Amino acid sequence: QVQLVESGGGLVQAGGSLRLSCAASGRSFRTYAMGWFRRAPGKEREFVAAISWGGGNIYYADSVKGRFTISRDNAKNTVYLQMNSLKPEDTAVYYCAAVSSGRWTTPAQQQGYDYWGQGTQVTVSS
User: pLDDT (tens digit, 9 = 90+) per residue, 46-66?
Assistant: First the structure.
């Protein structure tokens, strides 16, 4: 069982930066692949980024490629999402998700993750 808690959201102007964190409970964090998803107002939840247990495999949605960076610190049981050059369309609730590495076959699909955090709000003003 893994519990996930996101933090770092807030209000920022367009062009600004935020760093989201997702702290995981449990001693097996290093064996989990992690993902970030987001849900904008009135839209479906969508994939943002994902990272394998060791950080060797990383995936991004086209909409954030070049602006967002996912990383993890297994010693701290934490995954990060550095968001730069933020746009108003990045406004959403951001969720982190986890799945055991052996079952990580569809990094960009919500159905591929077993554990979810409660989300953190990111608002980008124009």
Answer: 999 999 999 999 999 999 999
